[in-house]
Amino acid sequence: MCRFIETIQVRDGELRNLTHHNRRMNETRKAVFGVSEQLDIRRYAEGCPVHGIHKCRVVYDREICEVAFSPYIMRPVHSLRLAYSDTVDYHYKSTDRKELEALYSLRGNQDDVLIVRDHLLTDTSIANVALEKEGVWYTPATPLLKGTKRAWLLEQGLLAECNIPADDIYSYSRIALFNAMIDFGFLFLDINRDTVIHI
């Protein structure tokens, strides 16, 4: 049976953005298993670390199966290579990452891949993205995964959704990578032919 995960940032004992994590988990449970009962991760998060930044990994199917905490160490990303797949599907945050791992293996000398599906930019192997043009940040309208941080940023009006053709990438000035663990504004890359490899 397939299982799914939520990865939640814990900062000084606080489970960050929990409303969006609970919402996505319960929407996934309903869509995949037909379960309408609402679960709250907070009720299962005993032993939450109270100092520093940690990762809370929640594994679930119909019910929550496992909750584990670990110190968070960010994987550095200084460059990206575009990787192409029109069949990759990760719209539910599953424990099965085989397709993403296969695309990640195509990164060559770069730190990660920026995945292109149907000629449009989506996500990296670990993060949603936004691209800056003339002071406005645009995030792909059809990401591989609708991340919880992405949902929050859209609600706050900090991002605008649009389709971003891969061939247009160099018309943007910067790219931001973000996810539940990487706050928006923490990881920026200038977009040029050394940092983003388009082949």
Automatic annotation (TrEMBL):
Against SUPFAM superfamilies, the record matches this protein to:
D-aminoacid aminotransferase-like PLP-dependent enzymes
Specify whether Lyase is a keyword of the entry: yes
Alphabetical UniProt keywords:
Lyase
Q: In the record, what terms sit under GO molecular function?
A: lyase activity
- One Pfam family for this entry, by name? Aminotran_4
UniProt xrefs under InterPro entries: Aminotrans_IV, Aminotransferase-like, BCAT-like_C, BCAT-like_N
Protein name as catalogued: 4-amino-4-deoxychorismate lyase
UniProt lineage: Bacteria, Pseudomonadati, Bacteroidota, Bacteroidia, Bacteroidales
